[in-house]
Amino acid sequence: MLATGIRRLIGVSMVAVLAACGSAPVGPGFYRVEQGDTVSKIARANRTSVQNIARWNGLSNANSIEVGQVLRVAPPAGTAVASAGASRPAPAPSASRDAAPDPAPARAPAVSLVWPAQGEIIRSFDGKTSKGIDIGNVPGTKVIAAAGGTVVYAGNGLRGYGNMLIVKHDSEYLTAYAHNRALLVKEGQSVAQGQEIAEMGDTDTNRVMLHFELRYLGRSTDPSRYLPPR
């Protein structure tokens, strides 16, 4: 069913697709951002204020929410609560692929990655114009799974990413591999860490490279923080 759901999202933004891959249920007191949500709307639905939502989630900018992001909507124990009528910033626009991602979670990495390909890093993560890292090499360079998991997307239906794979590792983390010359695995297939899954190429880009992304709860995260030094 998961692979079928991914296919239905072909043509929407990368953020929406990746968030859908990590849509596990959230616990009481938390809410997963959906398309069209704003912090103001979420606050009203949970009978609290934008000020509270921003404080509980460390949001310096209430406009910076993404589809798939998990927000605390109930106060942590011992936390003071501002009333819903308290002064608050203007309503945030709908969450979209252009919203700046939140910083990487301040916690020990729960997923251990290996480098997905050999080559030179030609573009680093900045969270805005670059949601991952780009690794340059020659056509056909081996692309491997950075961690074990299940392939939840294999195709070229997302404009700008060429032949792409998305591998889900658990309920929180997934990785994406774009611009490949060839895809060597299929949707629904289990892959092991280090297994060859694609060949580097230049589909939907102007040079041979692998565009590699890591998502935590649907949010773009700097992969280099999880990769070993080399």
Description:
The protein is of the alpha+beta class and 230 residues long. It folds into two domains: 1-99, Membrane-bound Lytic Murein Transglycosylase D, Chain A (Roll), CATH 3.10.350; 106-225, Glucose Permease (Domain IIA) (Distorted Sandwich), CATH 2.70.70. 13% of the residues lie in helices and 26% in strands. It is built from four helices and twelve strands. It has helices at 2-8, 14-21, 39-45, 50-56, and strands spanning 30-32, 70-72, 120-123, 133-136, 142-144, 149-155, 163-168, 173-183, 190-191, 196-200, 209-216, 219-221. Strands 3, 4, 5, 6, 7, 8, 9, 10, 11 and 12 form a ten-stranded antiparallel β-sheet that branches. Strands 1-2 form a two-stranded antiparallel ribbon. A hairpin with a 4-residue loop joins strand 7 and strand 8. The longest helix is centred in the N-terminal third of the chain and has 8 residues, at 14-21. It is elongated. The N and C termini lie far apart (38 Å). Residues 1-15, 19-23 and 82-108 have low confidence and may be disordered. GO terms for molecular function: metalloendopeptidase activity. Residues 82-98 have a biased composition (Low complexity). Belongs to the E.coli NlpD/Haemophilus LppB family. InterPro entries: Cell_wall_metabolism_enzyme, Dup_hybrid_motif, LysM, LysM_dom_sf, M23ase_b-sheet_dom.
